[in-house]
Amino acid sequence: MRFYDQPHRFYCGIDLHARTMHVCVLDQAGTTVYDRNLPCHFESLLEALTPFRDDVVLGVEARITVGSRPRGTQR
């Protein structure tokens, strides 16, 4: 992104699934400092990110498939 040039201490990627999420945190040098599968609960994520919360950027990958559309929505 051309408009965003501020470095951060930590970068977090989350691969979100229905029952689990994979959380990986890298430091500025690209070293993995946290890498775990967790239950898909907000409390689990907050607890995992507590050591990094002062300066972390999050990126989330989630995909909705046809079988998981909310009732009443059209295809």
Name the helix and strand elements from N-terminus to C-terminus, one letter apiece.
EEEHE
Mean pLDDT, all residues: 87
Radius of gyration: 15 Å
Distance between the termini: 32 Å
CATH class categorisation: Alpha Beta
* Main beta-sheet annotation: 4 strands, mixed
Overall strand count:
4
The secondary-structure class comes to mainly beta
The CATH topology comes to Nucleotidyltransferase, domain 5
CATH architecture: 2-Layer Sandwich
Shape: globular
Poorly predicted regions are: none
Proportion of β residues? 35-45%
3D architecture notes:
This protein has 75 residues and is mainly beta. The chain has a single domain (10-63), classed as Nucleotidyltransferase, domain 5 (2-Layer Sandwich), CATH 3.30.420. Helix content is 11%, strand content 39%. It has one helix at residues 42-49; strands at 10-16, 20-27, 32-39, 56-61.
